[in-house]
């Protein structure tokens, strides 16, 4: 395809430039807003995606910048859904443990909680975003030797689920009820801690 002359939209072409400007401003806002309920995450994804649809084919063919933005958008969507799912797991786990402490059926509460933690963490929707980020990462790496570093950490939990599992496994293995109760209370407290910024891979 012949490259048209007179394009004014730097890097993205006139057709996509306005959308990418909006996307960049949205990205700045997203970096300052908590991930869990940040509606800007979805907007950033939609803006970059639409910019890609409007971009001329000759620009898209070797545009590593757009691919890096689209990777970022897909990873942000993945991590947002992941955090929401992990928080919901913790909410259910917390309810099970509180019920166990009230009823004194501690072993049942422990088993229910461990079962919750063993549930699959990735939904089909999340898998689609992960695959999109993987494909675009391979393309941008091939074009420019760069990809979003967050993809390498995508399997790491955003909440401290490993600690919860360790606490509950210890509680399951001991007999004294007082110690069991202390561990269950510790697990509940863990679910109420704020998400540490270092676990969110922006």
Briefly, what is this?
The chain has helices at 14-30, 40-54, 57-61, 64-103, 106-117, 124-144, 161-173, 177-191. With 202 residues, it is mostly helical. Helix 2 packs antiparallel against helix 4, helix 4 (64-103) packs antiparallel against helix 8 and helix 7 runs antiparallel to helix 8 (177-191).
H-E string: HHHHHHHH
Low-confidence stretches: 1-8
How would a textbook summarize the main sheet? Answer: none
Oligomer: single chain
Please give a structural write-up.
- It is a single chain.
- Residues 1-8 have low confidence and may be disordered.
- The protein is mainly α and 202 residues long.
- Helix content is 68%, strand content 0%.
Layout: helices, strands, pairs:
Elements: H1 14-30, H2 40-54, H3 57-61, H4 64-103, H5 106-117, H6 124-144, H7 161-173, H8 177-191
Helix pairs in contact: 1-2, 2-4, 4-5, 4-6, 4-8, 5-7, 7-8
Provide the descriptors you would attach to this structure in a database record.
mainly alpha; elongated; 202 residues
């Amino acid at each position: 395809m012949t490259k048209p002359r007179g394009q004014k939209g730097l890097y993205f072409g006139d057709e996509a430039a306005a959308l990418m400007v909006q996307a960049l401003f949205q990205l700045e806002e997203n970096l300052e807003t908590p991930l869990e309920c940040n509606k800007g995450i979805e907007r950033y994804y939609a803006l970059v995606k639409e910019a890609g649809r409007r971009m001329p084919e000759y620009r898209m063919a070797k545009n590593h910048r757009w691919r890096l933005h689209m990777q970022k958008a897909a990873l942000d969507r993945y991590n947002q859904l992941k955090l929401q799912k992990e928080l919901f797991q913790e909410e259910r786990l917390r309810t099970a443990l509180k019920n166990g402490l009230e009823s004194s059926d501690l072993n049942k509460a422990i088993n229910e909680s461990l079962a919750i933690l063993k549930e699959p963490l990735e939904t089909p929707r999340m898998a689609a975003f992960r695959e999109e980020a993987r494909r675009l990462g391979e393309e941008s790496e091939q074009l420019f030797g760069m990809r979003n570093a967050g993809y390498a950490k995508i399997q790491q939990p955003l909440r401290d689920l490993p600690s919860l599992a360790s606490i509950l496994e210890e509680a399951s293995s001991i007999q004294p009820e007082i110690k069991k109760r202390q561990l269950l209370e510790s697990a509940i407290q863990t679910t109420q801690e704020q998400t540490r910024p270092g676990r969110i891979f922006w």
